[in-house]
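A note on notation is needed here, since sequence and fold are reported together in a single record. The reader may check this reading against the record printed directly beneath this paragraph.
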Amino acid sequence: MVSSSVQPLRIALLCESFGALGGVAQIVEDLALQFAAAGNRVAIISNVHKGPKMVRRQHWSIEQAWVDLPRDKPFSLRHPERLLRRADAPQLLGFLRNWRPHVLNVHGGLRDRFPPVLEACQAAGVPLVQSFHLVPEQSRGDSQSSRMQRFNTAALRAASAITFPSRAVKEAFIKIWPEAERAQVIRGGVNLEEAEHAAPLLRSKPYIFSASRLDLRHKAVDAVIEGFRLIATEYPEHDLLISGDGPQRIEVDRLIATSGLETRIHLLPPVPHSKLWSLYKGASVFVMLSRMAEGLPLVFFEAMACRVPVIGTNNGGTPEIVTHNRTGLLVNSSEPAEVASAMKALLANPIERERMAKEAYESVKPFDWRAVARHYLQLYHALLYSSAHRELKRD
């Protein structure tokens, strides 16, 4: 429980796709549970169109509001009326006016849904905290990239407070808008209690474990498969288990089928987050590789909390979690040969693997979700105190 001696708050957390599996949605769920445990009233707001895909547990202490979050579509010669008719979010505005939160914390970049959300907050008089979790994509010079950067900049300017999960994300946003320097870095967390009480998966053979979204543009699952193929003959006692879902699940299945290792590489059915702990805990090594800079991949926190050494890509916020040669190994690319070398280095040396596992566990202790939630609550209270102080000075 997050202890708090100050007045309880009404906290609204907005996550565009809370109903789907994903890192940002998991962060929102974990934070909400901690806020509620501290005696605050908490609501999670998400786009109504994601409701039918709901895969998350609903907790009695958390209220949920499914509202229509429209897109602010760009003006074009085919749609000149958009210049005068801006999108609004009447359902969100109605919820904010009825529920009266002290603060609305938006998690994730809403992009073209942000303008209507901002207008609803302003109309309801609710301070907006913007929490970005991903490194912004570099401008490609096309219209879509320009629009994304414009919405990100608007969110940075409009927010009463801003948080980033890592120094890497903050530095990337400062390049878009130098005043992002004022933002706080609040790293994500891990549920140490769930990790501690999880029973390791029992199977006849040990295994390397990988968990990520199955999108090969962002996650180098193919390099994990090929890296394992290169060491498979040398380490016949180990299998590779892959957990995840995404737009290229069929392609990943095909890669496994053509690897010649169909009996040793297993693509698991999509599992809820609560089932991952056993998979982490039973693994010899955890690996997740990225083609794009990560914000702060919490899968590493989770594996390390289960006393498992990890392999990650040396980009984005990953080096802020994984210390090379201490809590795991970092590879500089997604080249299969380098991945295979990292796997081999850990499998070949059980004593070194055990040392890294212990150090990994110690390194994540300060990031229990209870401690992370306290940082957010301190931010909310500071924001409300500052606002109240300004009101008194005006009076």
Notes: The chain is about 40% helix and 15% strand. Confidence is low (pLDDT under 50) at residues 79-85.
